[in-house]
Specification:
Elements: H1 13-25, H2 33-40, H3 45-51, H4 59-69, H5 77-83, H6 87-106, H7 108-154, H8 156-214, H9 220-236
Length: 245
Amino acid sequence: DLQELKSLLNPPAAVKLALESVLTLMGLYSNDWKVIKTNVMSDGFLERVQELQPEDVKSENVKAFNSRYSTNPLYTVEAAMKASKAAGPLVKWAKAMSEYVDILTRIEPLRNELARLETDVADMNKKKNEAGALILQLEGSIQKLKSEYSVMIGECERIKNETSTVETKVGRSRQLLDSLGGEQIRWANGAQGFDKQMTTLVGDALLSGAFMGYLGYFDQTYRRNMMAKWKKHLTRAKVGFKPDL
């Protein structure tokens, strides 16, 4: 409840830092308490905070946030909660948002690779469709050859020398059809494998990027705890990932 901050003329330092940090990420930084209070008490402030997406936070705002608050000993959730119950959650939100934006920045190459893979999958589907059309065309050709072959039987004497050639053509056509049929199965299996990988690729990339970029300096217990928390966040966000990652 931000109403408790409305009457403060000279707020505790931890409260002021909490509100400053949130406004910094929103691109509204000010260290003037009157300006801060005006922004915080404006209509829909909490809704704008809740609806702010990591992709919409500018990199310069995150840099400013890290520069001003990441090493400030007064800028902690505990200190903010002691000063005001309304400030603690804001600090927690700001820290989480900053870390999430950092993770998004680190995994940007993976997101680009994902886009490339999606393009490759689309190309493969196009080729699969083209192969299917070719198979149908070849099947039609085979049926036509069979009809012609039946007619030629009645003209046996005239086409006796051509029979062997026609049979060879039919055999080759059948071999090509069988070959393309096996290729279609292989492409279909490959597409299914890609579809399965696509359902967990974003989550796997986020967890892998976060692990490599953030947890390398910590012990196994801390890593396991952080991975569990991140997986919970991804589950709530309905982002798939491999359970054994």
